[in-house]
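Supplementary Note 3. Input sequence used for the single-chain structure prediction.
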Amino acid sequence: MTATINSQEKNRSRLQQRFDRLATDFDNNDFLHAEVRGRLLDRLPLFRLDPERILDLGCGTGGSRAVLSRHFPEVATYYLDLSEKMAASAGRGGICADATRLPFPDNSFDLIISNFMLHYVADLPAAIREANRVLRYGGLFLFSIAGSETLHEIRDAWSFDKHPHVDGLPDLKTVGDVVTSAKLTDPVLDSEVITVTYSSFDKMVNEISLVSAARDIGQRRQGLTGKNLWSTMRANCEANRDADDRLPVSIEVIYGHAFGGKLQDANKTAPETVEVPLSQLLGRGPRKMTND
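The predicted structure, written as discrete structure tokens, is reproduced below.
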């Protein structure tokens, strides 16, 4: 148990330092998080909400502020991130804290939004339980998380090496099980794959590195990756070019919502939902984007 805790602390510290370094230029390279955030926040009108307090869990530099301010102009909103510099960049209401140890009392929020952050948490069940703890009964938890098909092209390109180079990510069923186990109620999940294509291998690697970080470090190769290994991985990626001679990178996005499932405050009811066909909820379906 001690070894596990120490490993999680090291991972947490490493992620914090990594995103502190990325914070300055994050907005200039945040096309992916911004795209997913837009799709996530587009779902807000599906719920009839009148929140008193909102939490953006894993806020980054506060990209959700404009939309949340437009929907809920007078509502107290808190922007929380593990990175101190990210939280500071989010502006008013920015808080630096760990998603598995939220610095709020029980039943603090009517709405919690988390965009594309939860896959970085070493203990996902703990983070979801914390979200439920600080969510009022019937409050809405709206989130997106990277799914297991994310970066599968790069993972496959490294398959010759016994050391992992891409984090293992949860599939839709696993996320659903975690949400249910955390005692959130009426969970609804769906997923889509966004394919980003690049003309250049170097641009692909550079852009991914500017907006992401490795979570699991315990089994990773110690020291620098040798030139021969890197060359083999690059050749494997190049062999995967599509019919337009571009390099595809898949991002699986799992979207979900659920409601606070506490026994206290039982006089409160979950926000009314608007029934929408799944095809409309998913919008245009799988997307293909070029980023150069």
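The chain is about 35% helix and 20% strand. The first strand starts at residue 53 and ends at 57.
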